[in-house]
Design a protein that fits this description.
Layout (H helix, E strand, L loop, with lengths): L4 H16 L7 H8 L3 H13 L3 E4 L5 E4 L8 H8 L23 H17 L2 H12 L1 E3 L13 E3 L1
Antiparallel strand pairs: 1-2, 3-4
Helix pairs in contact: 1-2, 1-3, 1-4, 1-6
Length: about 160
Amino acid sequence: MRLTTKGRFAVTAMLDLAINATHSPVTLAAISGRQRISLSYLEQLFGKLRRRELVDSVRGPGGGYQLARPTSAISVADIIAAVEETIDSTQCGGKENCVDNHRCMTHDLWEGLNSTVSQYLAGVTLAEMVDKQRTQAVTLMPPPRSRSSRADGPIITV
């Protein structure tokens, strides 16, 4: 099985968009800067995401991209399918011609893995990923040291 850079970057960019497009569209340049993904690569990915109706583009000043659906209606599988071909662990691409035009002994194993991965990715929504990122953004930091070096407890930052 191979998840290419294309799929990884698309999921990362969509998560960034979902987190940052709360009030206005987000530019690809902003995503590129935050995620260190080439702007030209993002342009290619977002063209595919737009064709699959996962994002909408907004032209003009203040333009950029926004999600075309609620985050709860976009799965990781949707994003990957928009930019990838398929995630396939079989040697034959599901054609059952693995070895000398015949099904190999481990075909069912790899097909089962494909099914499990597909079901997992289809079950993870962008909303869940956003929630997880927001939860992880709250970190516990040690209190600043004072001259008395008294510890009052952790400081929570968001």
